[in-house]
Amino acid sequence: MTTMKIWMLFTYSLACFVIPACNQGGLGGPGTLETTSSAVSLEGPPGSSHEGKDDGADRCASSTGLAALPGYKVRVWAKGTTEFSHPDAIERDEKDIWVGFQNVTAKDGSDGKSSTVVEYTVEGRIERTFSVPGHCDGLRIDPATHLVWASSNEDGNPGLASIDPATGTVTLFTFDPTVHGGGFDDMAFVNGKMFIAASNPNLDASGVNVFPAVDQVTFQGTHVVLTPVLQGNATAVDVTTGLQVTLNEVDPDSMSIDPAGDLVLTNQAGAELVFISNPGSMTQVVTRLGVATQLEDPTWVPLAKGKFLIVDGTTNTIYAVRAPFVPGTAYTETPDDSSIASMFGTVDLKTGVVSPKIIGFKKATGLLFVPDVD
C-alpha cells in the first residue's frame, strides 16, 4: 500500500469523531461534534484515585478538550502534583503501576536535576516515590526479578537506575561514552535478556545511522556492558512488499513486545516499526513496517476486559480509557510533533494504516494496558 493511500485512510477516519458533552454525561451521536463550556471535574485530592467505581461511565475530564469515537470512555486516573510533574513512561508489575515523572529536566542531564518515579496502586493511589538522577525517559520492570529500571538522558550522558520494590533501594549504573553520540531511551525484557534503544544517534554525511540502534544490556558490577543487536543500517524484510530493505534508524525510541514475543523498536522520526525475532541470537530475524506517521509505544491488547492508561505529559495527567477491546489488536499513540499530534488509536500491522480513536491530548507520552483483576 502506498504512503499516500495510508495517509488518506489515516485522515479520513477523523471525520467520525465526537467530543463528549460533559454536561450531558455522554458522547454525542455518530458524525456529530458537540462542545460545552460546562465540564465535569473529576479531580480529587493529591494521591487519590480519580477513576472511581463508575470507571465505565461516559465522562470527560475537566476541560480536556479530548474527542473520542463512540464507545471509548475516558476518565482521569491520576495527576501529578507540585512535587512531581511531566509524566512520561508507565509500567505495571502485578498490582502496582509505576510512572516516571521527568519534572523539568534537561534531556541530556546537563542541569544536574532529577526525575521522580512514582509507585501507584492499580486504582491510582500513590504508594511511594523515588528520586532518580537526570531526565527519566524509559521505565521497565524485569519480570524475573521485579526490579524497576529507569533510564535517563536520552539525548546524551545516559544514566540507568534500578529500584528494588522490596527494600526501596535505588542503585545507579554507569555507561561508557556512547559510540552513537546520543543517549539511551526505552528498554525491554525478552527471554530473560535486557535490551535498550540507542537514541539521538549521530548520522553520517548522507543522513544514515551507521551505529547500533538496539543493544543487549549486561552488567559488570554497576557498570553497563552493551552488546550490539541491531545496527542502524541493518537489512530487514519489508512486511508489505516482502522485499529486503536497508534500515535507517534515525530515531530509536520506544520498545515493546508483541504477542509472538518479538522485540518491537519504534523508529519514531523514521515512521516505522522494526520487529526483531529472537533478538541477540544466531537465529535473529528482522522485519519492518512503514506507518502513516510518527508513532510511540505500540501496545497489544491481551484480554478483552481491561483499560488503557494514557499519559499526557503536558497536562500532568494520566487517563484511563475503556472500550470494547479486541484481544490481539495493536494500539499506539503519536507524539506531539506527529502529523496528527498526540492521538490514541490502532495500527494495522499488515498495512501500516493508523486509525485514531481519541484525539486532543497535549503530549501523549506513555501507554499501558491494565487487565481487570477479578
Could you explain how this protein is built, in words?
This protein has one helix at residues 3-12, and strands at residues 67-68, 73-79, 87-93, 96-101, 114-121, 126-133, 136-141, 148-152, 159-163, 170-173, 183-190, 193-199, 212-220, 223-231, 235-238, 244-246, 252-257, 263-267, 272-277, 285-290, 296-300, 306-312, 317-322, 330-333, 344-347, 354-359, 364-371. It is mainly beta and 374 residues long. The protein has one domain (73-371): 6 Propeller (Neuraminidase), CATH 2.120.10. It has a six-stranded mixed sheet, with no helix packed on it. The chain is globular and about 45 Å long.
Q: Sheet with the most strands?
A: 6 strands, mixed
Estimate nothing, just give the exact number of structural domains: 1
- What is the CATH C level class, in words? Mainly Beta
CATH topology descriptor = Neuraminidase
Radius of gyration: 20 Å
Percent helix: under 10%
User: What is the CA–CA distance across the termini?
Assistant: 42 Å
Spatially, the strands of the biggest sheet line up as: 16-15-20-19-18-17
What is the overall number of helices?
Answer: 1
Per CATH, the architecture is 6 Propeller
| Helix/strand structural class | mainly beta
State mean pLDDT (0 to 100 scale): 87
The proportion of residues in beta strands is 35-45%
Task: List the secondary-structure elements in sequence, H or E.
Answer: HEEEEEEEEEEEEEEEEEEEEEEEEEEE
Strands, total number: 27
At the fourth level of CATH, the homologous superfamily is Kelch-type beta propeller
| Large-scale geometry | globular
Poorly predicted residue ranges: 1-8, 19-63
